[in-house]
Design a protein that fits this description.
Elements lengths: L1 E7 L2 H10 L10 E10 L3 E2 L5 E3 L3 E11 L12 E2 L10
Antiparallel strand pairs: 1-5, 1-6, 2-5, 3-4
Amino acid sequence: MADFYLKFPDQTAADVALTAAGIASDCGATWHIDRLVTVWTDPVLDGAGDVVEAGVAVTGYHVNLRLLTGDLPSELTTFQMTPATPFRRFA
């Protein structure tokens, strides 16, 4: 089992690439998808926990993909990201 973090230019590009990889729906026998769509940066807080600077939307259409077997299909490798601290994961 492995989790992959993908970033596409938009939903259409995501749907085309996922379909080309044989992943045509959000859940299958060997995968699960979490469509995050928009990801935000963390806000900057002061010592009291008040927002000093709001979070900013990160460009792109974001998808988390869990493969229960196998490796990331080659159709998706150009969209793979490796966030240092992914904040939304599969349970």
